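Hi all, a correction to my earlier message: I attached the wrong file for Outer membrane porin, OprD family. Here's the right sequence:
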Amino acid sequence: MSPHMLKGSILILGIAPTLALADNFLSEGHAKLEYRQYYFNADPDSGTGPTRDEWVQGVLVDYQSGFYRDVIGLDLGYGVADALHIGNGADSITNLSADDDVQDPHSISTPTTAYLKLRLGDEGNRLRLGWGKKSRDYHLYADNTTRILPASSIGYDVAYDFRDLSLYAARIDRFSPRDESSWGDDLATFDGQSINRVELAGLSVDLPGDVTFETEYLTARDYLDESFFGLSHDLALPLDSTLSMSLAHGSQRDGGNLFETQGVPRRYQAEDSHDALYDEASLTWRLPDKYLGLAYTRVDGDNYDRTLFAEDHGTWDSEAKNFYWFGLAGEAMWKVSGGLDLSPLGLEGLRWDGHYAFSDSADGYQDFSRREFLSMLRYRFSGALDGLSLAWLHIDFETLGKPAPGSDKTLTYAASGFITHDTDRLYLTYRYTF
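and the right structure:
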């Protein structure tokens, strides 16, 4: 750990007892205890993809304080996880990490949150600042939270809210993977070169006509640059329903001399430069207990599937970021999605969500097709079992195709690569808030 990170950590821990005795710090705070069991089963179905048979458990404890004198607060969290069963036929594990033996993974014991937060002003005119470790969620950078323990990052955040305008910026110095015991690792490229930091800035503003405009810019220093622009509008309709409409445009470009123009084996092929763009339009009709959506996304230039550093799990705020990414150059995806709360049918606590996405073209490949069917069935218990939930995720994912004669394309296996993957996942969660 670098000296300034160590000093900052000591500062957070040092002021915690003092804040704990202050007005509002405890009275307006809340804690959460969560126990999880996840079972992941995956089959490449004669294609290229992982074979998984893993059953893991984890415990997360989180505390979010109130604000002392309405100015300063502290969030803390810790997580532990280990394996209950790893099948003999598994060749990959995703909730935990392993060395040479997938059947003998490492357990995890790690701080997930240690974040000092400050705020000045009041609603409608407020400055918010923070430093430390937490799971962040922006358009262009988001720490992955889909495994037994979440990924997190260490850095700074600042935001200013004034009426319908929000300005914000963030800096990320270190990263804590979702499958390791780690305070935070240095950021690095796939060939081991150090990335000094990731920085982003953005704004969101409500325009006349109930239109929201959002934009964000990010740079992984000397490695990768990204941008995002979005417009959205909600239109009230009869039957207490809403039609949500959105347009988005984004780009991803090489950002300097750290970018691997030589390629990364199996993930990215060699390229003199990288310049990927996407455009997206989506419609979602929402009723009180159901919704139906349609989205179209097209990628141009190069593949839209680079990560900000080697350990990054990847962020793409797009309908085309599904179980895997529909992000090859020239790929055009259509996606139909829907969801239904089954409580009005007498099945209290039961909900279904799903989508079907497909594309049939990608530059430089012939006989190309990509298909994804996703189904998520969730049940939330009530009464004496309030806080307990069970979910079943089923996914059929297939990518077919081969390089066209005369093209310089190869088969790659990054997030938008030629992967075929069927999976079933069970999530058992018990959450208690106090």
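Sorry for the mix-up. The longest helix spans residues 3-20.
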